Amino acid sequence: MSPRAADPFDPHAFRRTLGAFATGVAIVAAEAADGTPVGMTMSSFNSVSLDPPLVLFSVARSALSLPALKTARAFGISVLAQDQQELSNRFARAMGEKWTGVERLTGAHGAPLIAGAAAHLECVPHAIHDGGDHEIFIARVLAHRAEEGAHPLIFHAGRYRSLAAHAH
């Protein structure tokens, strides 16, 4: 099933292949140097290490909020709940009034968090690495909490999905 050496690499097919991996959806937020909150939706969020507690997320080099994220003192990561699809769509857009009407919490370390999320992580920068057309941020988790019984927002094959309840 591997491609022949002569086959051209198709980035659209690659994106579809990556879409076969179901992910949760998170909003990563920070304060810009002028105090303005910035945030963006991402599905490229993963755990890295338990000791020390590290997570990662990647940001496109073309993202308008990249400069603010690179200089942020803290990150607020809100793992979205199933009923927060509209927020996911809103924060996925490059411009606009993302924060208008959004109930925002401020973490102990100053980073914005989205109220009603399935989980929150408060982080500080640990490292940034080259990731091709993205920058890979590794962040140290200082505080975290998950809402018991919350259902996460799931993204798979270019669409939002729901987890099926298992009957035992």
Layout of helices and strands:
Blueprint: H1 11-18, E1 23-24, E2 26-31, E3 37-42, E4 45-50, E5 53-60, H2 66-71, E6 75-79, H3 85-92, E7 104-106, E8 112-114, E9 119-131, E10 134-146, E11 154-156, E12 159-161
Antiparallel strand pairs: 1-11, 2-3, 2-6, 4-5, 5-10, 6-9, 7-8, 9-10, 11-12
Description:
This protein has 3 helices and 12 strands. It is mostly beta strands. It has a single domain (24-157), classed as Electron Transport, Fmn-binding Protein, Chain A (Pnp Oxidase, Chain A, Roll), CATH 2.30.110. The longest helix is centred in the first third of the chain and has 8 residues, at 11-18. The chain starts with 10 loop residues before the first helix and ends in a 7-residue tail after the last strand.
**How far apart lie the N and C ends?**
37 Å
Provide the CATH architecture.
Roll
Describe the main β-sheet briefly: 7 strands, antiparallel
- Tell me the number of strands: 12
Order of helices and strands: HEEEEEHEHEEEEEE
Q: Low-confidence spans: pLDDT under 50, at least 5 residues?
A: none
Class derived from helix and strand content = mainly beta
Using the CA coordinates, give the radius of gyration: 17 Å
- What's the CATH C level? Mainly Beta
Summarize the structure.
The protein is mainly β and 168 residues long.
Provide keyphrases for this structure.
globular, Pnp Oxidase, Chain A, 168 residues, mainly beta, 12 strands, 3-stranded antiparallel beta sheet
